[in-house]
Specification:
globular; nine-stranded mixed beta sheet; 186 residues; Rossmann fold; 37% helix
Length: 186
């Protein structure tokens, strides 16, 4: 099943995905792979993102709010610089998830680069075409694009602005119910 988690910018999409992962790890015995991008704050201002591998727990800085590259391979995308080492880390984490076939793969997030066939697009394409259960986080302005790209798999759209971001909303979601109701807790 392909689930697409959507909402506006700063609506809590990553937080919702992280809550889902946490609840599934707590209440089931499934394996979860992929990536979550955790916001980095300084003085209550978002200054970057820390990419976390859900298989290993390892992290790497993925992006910083800046208009200045640290390396030639870094990518400027709007107000962010996507660090080349962060991109390589995310690619490796997704390739590892593709190789190990966990029960659920979470991809946070599909953005402008992926829409244009860049960034993590190759890794995402591999996972969507070969994994049974995938949750992809995407901003609302890209919802049409991602459903067009992966529409053959008939994705289920989860709009957190309609269902909410609290724990009950996560527990009532199809991704949670899909695993929790199978009673696969060890």
């Amino acid at each position: 099943m392909l689930w697409i988690l959507t909402g506006s910018v700063n609506s809590g999409k990553s937080r919702w995905a992280k809550a889902l992962v946490s609840l599934l790890k707590e209440n089931t015995s499934i394996t979860i792979g992929g990536i979550i991008n955790n916001a980095i704050f300084e003085n209550n201002v978002k200054i970057g993102y820390l990419c976390e591998s859900l298989l290993t727990g390892a992290t790497e800085v993925f992006a910083r709010r800046s208009q200045k590259k640290e390396n030639d391979d870094d990518i400027i995308c709007g107000q962010w610089v996507i660090l080349s080492k962060g991109m390589r880390f995310a690619q490796q984490a997704l390739l590892q998830a593709h190789k190990e076939h966990p029960d659920l793969v979470v991809i946070d997030e599909f953005g402008l680069l992926e829409k244009d066939g860049k960034g993590l697009r190759n890794e995402i394409d591999k996972i969507v075409s070969s994994s049974n259960n995938v949750l992809i986080v995407v901003r609302k302005p890209l919802l049409y694009d991602i459903t067009t790209i992966y529409g053959k798999t008939t994705p289920q759209i989860i709009d957190i602005e309609k269902i909410g971001t609290d724990e009950e909303a996560v527990k009532n979601s199809m991704p949670y119910k899909c695993f929790a109701e199978k009673n696969i807790h060890s």
